Amino acid sequence: MLDRNSGPSSTRSDRDPLSELLMGMRLRGASYGKLRLAPPFGISFPATAHARFHFIAAGDVHIRPAAGDPARLGCGDAVLLPRGDAHAIVSAPGVSSRPLESFETTPLCAEVCALTEYAPGTCRTKDVLIFTGQMEFELDTLHPLVGLMPAVMSVGALLGRQPEIPPLLAAMEREMATDRAGTAGILARLADVVAATIVRGWVECGCGDATGWVEALRDPRLGRVIAALHRDPGRDWSVAEMAAEMGSSRSVFAERFVAATGTTPLRYVAALRMRLAEQWIARDRMSIDMAARRLGYASQAAFSRAYKRVTGQTPGHARAAARPERPAEAPPL
After folding, report:
1. Mean per-residue pLDDT over the chain, rounded
2. Alpha helices in 134-164 (DSSP H)
3. pLDDT in tens, 22-52
4. Measuring CA to CA, which residue among 91, 96, 88 is closest to residue 52?
5. Which residues does 146 contact at the CB level (< 8 Å), separation at least 6?
6. Going by C-beta distance under 8 Å and a sequence separation of 6 or more, which residues neighbour residue 40?
7. Angle at 132 (CA atoms; ends 131, 138), nearest 5 degrees
8. Which runs of E-coded beta strand occur in 24-170?
9. Residue 68, helix vs strand vs coil
10. pLDDT at 122
11. Is the peptide bond before 65 cis (omega within 30 degrees of 0)?
12. What's the pLDDT tens digit per position in 121-141?
């Protein structure tokens, strides 16, 4: 979570609102795979609720998104699919692909498994090495940002602007080429850092063609209001208080807010609170009563009514539907 209490308010107000909110962004690895494949090959990755990351440590491949043009990836390339869209990685254009789940895997550690496949007699000098992972965006209050990201984000666009990236990629190449103790865990942590750096680079470059919510944050006055809402979602916000934060009349504020975000200020606050509540209850296993109190509701009953009105289900249903803990001995790719 964002630290809502650290630092004087004047320091927070001088900070770029989008940068302030990005302080709460984290990428948490869910599972990883160390792939060694001999051409020709093709793997179809299904759509997932998680982001998907690929790093090519040796060889050349092509990525085929479900929508959009294929692209070649060479040794040292890394890509992030922030919304986990379905796609395939193939050794060459025109090669057919098999579903990921049809390949056999071997656990290497609690988070990482290995996938190795090649035909007998195949020349092993042409093996392709890929480190892949599923990652959860721990965005807390930044959920709108993911929907604005490109379907495929490449590290290549950042190499000339972010000197910290090449050493990270080189370290991943070295780890993939060895079987040293702890290699799998080190690769997982490096992948997390590279993926987060790709997202940060996109934001620092202006978020591409993203509009609406990002433009609102780029507006110094309106962005200040949105940052305040995200910083303190449990406050009993009124339109008048939000307008005062912006320094305008209620009518001007409400009109600009709807134009930028596509929703009214009070609906935005309600949706923000329920997004947080869903994460706390389903992901962090927080009690419903605690979530209600943290979001400023006088009673669990009042919170449950608000939750159902916004999400269409009860908080208890969200808890029951949360995925069970994954067995450490069988990490899925």
Report:
1. 83
2. 143-148
3. 655 667 778 899 999 999 999 999 998 789 9
4. 88
5. 82, 83, 137, 139
6. 90, 91, 92, 95
7. 130
8. 26-37, 42-45, 51-58, 61-65, 71-73, 78-81, 87-90, 98-99, 106-107, 112-117, 128-138, 153-154
9. coil
10. 72
11. no
12. 777 788 999 999 998 876 555
Strands 153-154 and 78-81: antiparallel
How many other CB atoms sit within 10 Å of the CB of residue 50?
19
Structure tokens at 58: 């040796």
Pairing of strands 98-99, 42-45: parallel
Q: 91 with 40: CB under 8 angstroms?
A: yes
Nearest CA to 117 among 128, 131, 133?
128
Long-range Cβ contacts of 294-302 (<8 Å, 24+ apart): 294/234, 295/233, 295/234, 296/233, 296/234, 296/235, 296/236
Question: Which of 140, 45, 115 has its CA nearest to residue 83?
Answer: 45
Distances (CA, A) of 215 to 119, 242, 254: 52, 18, 16
Give the integer Cα–Cα distance in Å for 30 and 117.
Answer: 23
